[in-house]
Amino acid sequence: FKDRRVVQQFVGECPTDYPFVRDLKKPVTIGAHMSGDDFINNHFQQSEAMYHAGEVFQEVAAEYAKLSGREYPVLDLYKMEDAEVALFLLN
Q1: How far apart are CA 33 and CA 31, in angstroms?
Q2: Would 30 be classed as within a structural domain?
Q3: pLDDT tens readout for residues 6-58
Q4: Domain assignment present for 23
Q5: Which domain holds residue 56?
Q6: With contact defined as beta carbons under 8 Å apart, do 68 and 6 qualify?
Q7: 35 in a domain, yes or no?
Q8: How far is CA 6 from CA 9, 59, 88, in A?
Q9: Which of 33, 37, 55 lies closest to 45, judged by CA?
């Protein structure tokens, strides 16, 4: 983006009430280890969130497009006109 304020208006300013996160001389790890019930509960919550993400995607995408002038579909098909097989890859 040419103007960083467009993005900051959408996602918000970087939090300043966590000074330890930005101190490069004292790195920290936050929430990296879970075991037992916490681990299972966390993955359950992530799964539930993903199942409901489609409900809000269009709303958030429209808000972002209005703010930035850029539109992104939920799925961007590329060179699929005559494809017999499609791979859907994440990360």
Answers
A1: 6
A2: yes
A3: 888 888 877 777 766 677 787 777 766 778 888 899 899 999 999 989 888 99
A4: yes
A5: 4-68
A6: yes
A7: yes
A8: 5, 18, 30
A9: 37
